[in-house]
């Protein structure tokens, strides 16, 4: 498993953030095989209700919360609040991965790991196919215009 805990380990993971104007994304800088764990989605785990409240205050800026279910609980990874307590300086790559419903090459995988005897929710990204160097990483956010910040928004990228 690739553990993303520091800038150093992101280099080991061999993925990198690119920037085009204001828009960022993530590319592979080494090949991955189908089934490989590529990186994680780093951030503080909060309730989904807290995540939704946070999104209501957002307007046109990029959104970084990741909503998931952990057993019966609706939860959210808050990658919006930056920098986070445990990563005071470096950005994290997971939150820079863009959406594709038509051609995703990653799939998020929810795991619960023990850290200091306590359960911790973690989101890892598994490669859906072989991924070559310089390929942009994308996953299906699983949202549509209705579920992503309400109806009637002109968000063409959700159809990609
Ligand atoms: C988790 S962030 C992804 C990284 C983001 N592009 C950035 O510059 O930091 C999610 C935001 O990225 C943008 N986004 C996601 N997928 C996109 C795509 N396929 N094309 C254009 N923008 C996208 C949207 O603004 C969305 O709110």
Automatic annotation (TrEMBL):
Q: Which domain of life is it from?
A: Eukaryota
Write out the GO biological process terms: methylation; regulation of DNA damage response, signal transduction by p53 class mediator; regulation of transcription by RNA polymerase II
Q: What InterPro entries does its record include?
A: KMT5A, SET_dom, SET_dom_sf
Fetch the Pfam families from UniProt: SET
What does UniProt give as GO cellular component?
nucleus; polytene chromosome
Start and end of every SET domain?
13-142
Protein's recorded name = N-lysine methyltransferase KMT5A-A-like isoform X2
